[in-house]
Amino acid sequence: xxxxxxxxxxxxxxxxxxxxxxxxxxxxxxxxxxxxxxxxxxxxxxxxxxxxxxxxxxxxxxxxxxxxxxxxxxxxxxxxxxxxxxxxxxxxxxxxxxxxxxxxxxxxxxxxxxxxxxxxxxxxxxxxxxxxxxxxxxxxxxxxxxxxxxxxxxxxxxxxxxxxxxxxxxxxxxxxxxxxxxxxxxxxxxxxxxxxxxxxxxxxxxxxxxxxxxxxxxxxxxxxxxxxxxxxxxxxxxxxxxxxxxxxxxxxxxxxxxxxxxxxxxxxxxxxxxxxxxxxxxxxxxxxxxxxxxxxxx
Length: 298
What we know:
Elements: H1 3-28, H2 34-59, H3 61-66, H4 68-89, H5 95-102, H6 105-117, E1 120-121, H7 123-140, H8 155-176, H9 183-208, H10 216-244, H11 246-251, H12 255-267, H13 274-292, E2 296-297
Antiparallel strand pairs: 1-2
Helix pairs in contact: 1-10, 1-12, 2-4, 2-9, 2-10, 4-8, 4-9, 5-8, 6-8, 7-13, 12-13
């Protein structure tokens, strides 16, 4: 398959992995401290990845040291901020609000692309974004548009908005600050920067909230998020941004609630409704339209 097709498959995998992450965020709210979950997730991911990338990190040390400021900023926006803010937001808002605010990711990516890259998305990308957004709203509304007018927003939604802006900026800077480093080595370097940035917040939560419980549920949450939502998803996302650009890659975030609904049907035995099928079809059609043609006009 072509590089473009592999990028699309990787972004589909990312959306699926993030759907599982969303289920864990919802299920662990009130049970697992959010900063601790983020800290142990990334620490385990680093321990798993470092044995395979330590030689590469040393080999590319001069490039990494040359770009250390950029590396720290990228790590802070992604490793340290995005998921920590998402887990924190899940403590005080509903799952549907989290998903609805999360739909702003393509808008954030469009905004940062225009501001920093002077790039305006192509017409096909905008049309695909509109179709995907309509499909997503249909799912969130449960086939009843008036339900969207009844939503109430709170502090957790503002935290999720900050997470969306952080991830959008990370995606755009990742394309702007291209570093000649293999994907896994870059990921390891970002973890080496991002995990220490989480330590002060982790220690604060440890003192004021308490430690993570030593249970199988907590271990499972950390294990899944470390392997699939961290290593697999981030490497695939970074490659997708590199190949397709941040504006188009961000559209795949629309699939996260679609996959979340499907996982709910398969794993939680939730009922499958017509709006799941129609909304999912519109979302996939929008992504097909957005990824079929060149993505950016200047």
